[in-house]
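Hi R.,

Here's the chain you asked about this morning:
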Amino acid sequence: MDSLREAELLAADAIGDVIEHWGFRKALGRVWTVLYLDTEPLPAAELAERLAMSAGAVSMALTELQRWGVVRRVWRPGERKEYFEAETDFWKMISKVVSERERFLADSVRTRLEQARERAERGPRSARKDHLLERVGRLSAFANVAQSVLDSFIQSQRADFQKFGNLLSIARAKVGARRAS
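And here is the predicted structure, written out as tokens:
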């Protein structure tokens, strides 16, 4: 195996690990990475060969990646095979995933907290009921604020990394120093 193919697989496994950490299947990250690193769209059969994955596993990964909007099918005139390419806009990918996954979770949390409040209100009057209602109310208020922050984050399409100080420049300097040595 040549060094470029080794590098491609190493990067695919690294991104696969990140994707798996976020709760997705590792194969999704591996397939997306190979598409992202290539200069041309690739057919599913080539992805399967490069990643030593079954055709079925690659097909399932491509279907899911298309659903998330991070891979798209590309038509090539005169070709019967389907080709695929990766979305390269990181912000677009992250905001889509955050929007869909986190919004679903936030809606679920708000609904269940509202149900908890309704059930608590049906209980007999007591200090415990008052305490429970007050705490559920605080949790609901926090969930609403978190949803507002999330919506603002998605709509602004900007992330403020000032809190991280010079971490990005330090990381870039370390990468540059490694390349120089």
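One quick note: The chain has two domains: 3-86, 90-170.

Cheers,
M.
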